[in-house]
Amino acid sequence: MSMFEQAPARQDTPINPHQFIIRQPTPDDGNAVHNLIHKSAFLDNNSLYCYLLLCTHFSTTSAVAMMGAKVAGVVTAYIPPQQPDTLFVWQVAVDAVAQGQGLASKLLNDLLARDNTRHLSFVETTVTGNNTASRALFMSLARRFNTSVSESVMFDREQHFLSLHDSEHKLRIGPLERP
């Protein structure tokens, strides 16, 4: 799921955005990514093994932001086999100490600027109806790429989640206008 973490309280010490180093994740980042997702009240926590696989098999379409030796942000994403022109963003999380610096946008920009993703025309993600932070992030992405956003229900609360989870709405951003 692609939900942007909103921390209940931000750290008072301002973070210099130049302190972040954005790079592809490695298997050694799996535990830190798992812990970052686990701390989020808004993201579904998956197994450590899942994040190890994401940091291995999907490293070229995912990104971590390092603040020193600490993972301060992550975007997990992949290219669906049936949609080779689309990046599906699964989860976005930013640690509370790094929020308010535009880090989620920087992570997405880094992903879309890579050689292996420059051919992509669309970005997709899912968000719940009340996830205003994720919606704002992806609307901002659409503005940066001078494109539109379409929305449809991808996984329905009753049909897919047995009424145990809110419906997940698919946001489709594109086609991306690249410089």
Provide a quick synopsis of the model.
With 179 residues, the protein is α+β, with helices and mostly antiparallel strands.
- SSE pattern: EHHEEEHEHEE
Domain tally? 1
Q: Uncertain regions: pLDDT < 50 for 5+ in a row?
A: 1-14
* Largest sheet descriptor: 7 strands, mixed
The proportion of residues forming helix, as a percent range, comes to 10-25%
Question: Can you walk through the features of this model?
Answer:
It is a single chain. Strand 2 and strand 3 form a beta hairpin. The chain is α+β, with helices and mostly antiparallel strands and 179 residues long. The chain has four helices and seven strands, in the order βααβββαβαββ. It has helices spanning 30-39, 48-57, 103-113, 132-144, and strands at residues 20-23, 63-67, 70-78, 86-94, 122-127, 149-155, 168-173. The chain has a single domain (18-173), classed as 3-Layer(aba) Sandwich (Aminopeptidase), CATH 3.40.630. It has a seven-stranded mixed β-sheet with strand order 1-2-3-4-5-7-6. The model is unreliable at 1-14 (pLDDT under 50).
Features:
179 residues; 7-stranded mixed sheet; 4 helices; alpha+beta; single chain
Helices and strands in order:
Blueprint: E1 20-23, H1 30-39, H2 48-57, E2 63-67, E3 70-78, E4 86-94, H3 103-113, E5 122-127, H4 132-144, E6 149-155, E7 168-173
Parallel strand pairs: 4-5
Antiparallel strand pairs: 1-2, 2-3, 3-4, 5-7, 6-7
Helix pairs in contact: 1-2
